[in-house]
From TrEMBL:
Residues where K(+) binds: 231, 233, 267, 270, 272
Keyword field contains Phosphoprotein: no
Domain Carbohydrate kinase PfkB: 6-278
Protein name: Ribokinase
Gene name of the record: rbsK
Length: 293
């Protein structure tokens, strides 16, 4: 079984700042690091580190070969990552002392992915596989159509969130990831409730409050695990990647969510994105005490 992830690949420039910048403010950062990022790359790395098999579908520029090398190093199959004559995507991330962040993104090659590139990957999939998507690339509708044709299950992490776009893709997903604000905006856009959507499973993340699993008319709450927060960047992507890899390895959704909550709890205690996502052994060996209610 395999997760085919149509997702972004970015160079993440992370700046430590005393507070998040205000409009018109010039602010001195205390440090900067460059790392592998993009919601897609983060999720692919999380899948691989959670012992899942993952093919990344995406694009970089000539300046981004280091990113492909890094993905491969972390266990991601990169044969469907294309090199194009455009810049690699990048993100400027500001992180304050409480771990909150603000992010500015240049899409670059992430929005130049062709239908042919997507088809070359998805034709290798089948009913035993997942297609995972976010909103940082183009080609989502085409990828969904192709995945349905070969019987793949579709998981959609609807971020960065645009209600109109999410309303087009979400109803065709088998598994949908949203945060609380996105969930409310999607319901408002579609004039419906989560329980009325034709989606088998919806997971609504709530940051430090845990998450909720909506399955039909039932809602199961999962509290978070305690953490000393350093940086929240990439925690949601880590959670999503761990859930998908765990499901792909045959775990139940409650089991997958619990493991993903543990991984996310470790992740927020680290500075960085894809490069610091914990592996399965770290998550299994970690001691968390009681989860937070």
């Amino acid at each position: 079984m395999t997760v085919f992830n149509l997702g972004s690949i970015n160079a993440d420039y992370t700046y430590q700042v005393p507070h998040l910048p205000q409009p018109g403010e010039t602010l001195a950062a205390s440090s900067v690091t460059r790392g592998l990022g993009g919601k897609g790359a983060n999720m692919s790395v999380a899948c691989a580190r959670a012992a899942g098999r993952v093919f990344h579908i995406g694009a970089i520029g000539e300046d981004g070969t280091w990113a492909t090398d890094r993905l491969l190093e972390y266990g991601v199959d990169t044969r469907h990552v294309s090199t194009l004559d455009v810049p690699t995507g990048h993100a400027i991330i500001s992180v304050d002392p409480e771990g909150e962040n603000s992010i500015l993104i240049l899409p670059g090659a992430n929005i130049e992915i062709t239908e042919k590139m997507i088809a070359a990957a998805i034709c290798e999939g089948g009913p035993q596989d997942w297609l995972l998507m976010q909103n940082e690339t183009n080609g989502l509708q085409e990828a969904t159509d192709m995945a349905k044709q070969v019987g793949m299950k579709v998981a959609y992490a609807a971020a960065p969130f645009v209600a109109k776009d999410a309303a087009q893709i979400a109803p065709r997903a088998d598994l949908l990831f949203l945060n609380e604000i996105e969930a409310q905006q999607l319901q408002d856009e579609m004039n419906t409730t989560l329980s009325s959507l034709p989606i088998a499973d919806i997971i609504v993340t709530k940051g430090g409050k845990g998450c909720a699993w909506h399955h039909g008319d039932e809602v199961t709450e999962f509290p978070s695990y305690p953490a000393d927060v350093v940086d929240t960047t990439g925690a949601g992507d880590t959670f999503t990647g761990y859930v998908l890899a765990s499901l792909d390895r045959g775990m139940t959704i409650p089991q997958a969510i619990d493991l993903a909550q543990r991984a996310a709890s470790l992740m927020v205690q680290r500075l960085g994105t894809a490069d610091v996502i914990p592996d399965l052994k770290e998550v299994q060996d970690a001691s968390f005490g009681s989860s937070q209610s």
